[in-house]
Every structure is written in C-alpha cells, then in structure tokens.
Design a protein that fits this description.
About 50% of the residues lie in helices and about 20% in strands. By secondary structure, it is an alpha/beta fold.
C-alpha cells in the first residue's frame, strides 16, 4: 500500500516506537497528525518532519479523545488511517497498583483506541475506505505475573480489534492488530 498523501492520525507519536514510525511514515509521503501528551517532544518531532502537525492531547478521557480527532480532521482535511499506538506501562504486583493510575492505564491503553475508532469510523464509511491499526503487545496474548494490568489492557485491545474487524467485514474498512515484542 502506498502511503504517499495518506492522512494518518498517529497516537503515541512522541515515544520511542511512535517517533520512529512517524519518521518512516513521513519518509513515505504521509500527511500526519501526531498525537501525544508530551507537547514539547511532539512539537520538536513535527518540526523535523515534512507534512506533520502536532496535536497535543490527553487520551485519558472521552473529551480528550474527541478533541484530538476533531483537531486532526481539521488539520488533515480528513483521515485515511488511524494508528492507535499510545499506551502506558505498569509492571508491578496487582496489590501495588495505584487505583487512579490503574484506571488511567485502562483508559489510555484500551478505552482510547475504542473511542478514537468510534470517532473515525463514520468518516471512513462516508468516504468508502479506511484503516485502523491497533498496536497491542505480546503481553496481550501471553499474560505474565506482575504485568497484570498492562497485560489485561493489551488483551482487551486484541479482543477489540478482532471484534471490530468482524463488525466492519462488509465495509471497505480494514482493521489490523500488531503485537510487538
């Protein structure tokens, strides 16, 4: 698939994998809306790239997800691909998890991809095409002790991707799940 001219929303863009992916997508000619909570790193990355817009945002709430998509659609003039890469990590025993962080981890890792997908699907249906790429983890398939919260969130992303792919099977919208490691 040629990415030249494709309008892509990339969450988690300022992180290690995200920034490298942003650079590769830019190299291939994509128009990018780069999303991350780290506004300073995001601005620096966008300045280094050709057709990239920084969209600082907080994916830990429904309102934050809506604001990100609204701004990205405005900046790009639409969307062809959504890459749900943003995520939080937690590697500790379940009894040591902070309840507030546990809720935020589930919101960013699982609920945000669901909400962002929900927001772009109508645009994809209207234009007759689109692609959602959900980045999970091998920890979503092989759940490890002391990785309970993180593994559970990534298992949810895997399940969401499988269900959404089936739900959209009769459309021209593709859903891809990637599990790095």
């Amino acid at each position: 698939m040629s990415l030249n001219g494709k309008r892509i929303i990339l969450t988690g863009a300022a992180g290690g994998i995200g920034s490298q992916l942003a650079r590769e997508l830019d190299r291939q000619g994509a128009m990018l809306a780069l999303v991350d909570a780290n506004a300073a790193a995001l601005e620096r990355l966008a300045e280094d790239l050709g057709q990239a817009h920084a969209v600082p945002g907080d994916l830990s709430s429904a309102g934050g997800c809506e604001a990100v998509v609204e701004k990205a659609l405005h900046l790009l003039g639409g969307v062809d691909i959504l890459v749900n890469l943003a995520g939080l990590m937690s590697f500790r025993a379940i009894e040591d998890e902070n309840p507030a962080f546990l809720q935020k981890l589930m919101q960013v890792n699982l609920i945000a991809p669901m909400l962002l997908s929900r927001l772009v699907v109508p645009h994809f249906l209207a234009q007759g095409s689109g692609h959602i790429v959900n980045v999970g983890s091998i920890f979503g398939s092989i759940n490890f002790a002391y990785f309970t919260a993180y593994s559970t969130s990534k298992a949810g992303v895997r399940g969401f991707s499988e269900a959404l792919r089936r739900e959209l099977a009769d459309s021209h919208i593709d859903v891809t799940y990637i599990a790095p490691r």
